[in-house]
Amino acid sequence: MGSVACGGGKRTMTEAEFLSRFERQPTGVWFCTKPIKIDGPNGPLFINPGHGFSPGILFLGIDLAKELDRMAAIQRVASKLSGEAFASAA
To answer: Number of structural domains, the chain?
Structure first.
């Protein structure tokens, strides 16, 4: 997909940062909540707040809704494991 700018800088955004810029609706559609700039092969590409991504629809060759679902699942597991590790350390 190319590098994704975070804020005004030129660093690469983590998956967690990228995911935090979207909100999932009960229908499975993900809406952008904060602007994102992607440095694509043909120049910059912007995702503006309010833009939605539906399952099965490709964005730059990627089913972004499916990818966001995958990222969210990983975040839930990581959060759960982190909570369990904290509880066992106490």
So the answer is: 1
First CA to last CA distance, the chain: 42
Instruction: Please report which confidence band the pLDDT of residue 2 belongs to, taking 50, 70 and 90 as the band edges.
Output: very low
Question: Containing domain of residue 80, as a range?
Answer: 3-89
Buried b (16+ CB within 10 A) or exposed e, 17-35: ebbebbeeeeeeebebeee
**Residue spans of alpha helices (H) in the chain:** 15-19, 64-89
Average pLDDT over residues 76-85: 76
Question: In whole angstroms, what is the distance from residue 52 CA to residue 64 CA?
Answer: 10
Residue whose entry in the numeric block shows the structure tokens 């967690």: 16
51 near 31, Cβ under 8 Å?
A: yes
Q: How confident is the model at residue 78 (pLDDT cuts 50, 70, 90)?
A: confident
* pLDDT in the model for residue 40: 81
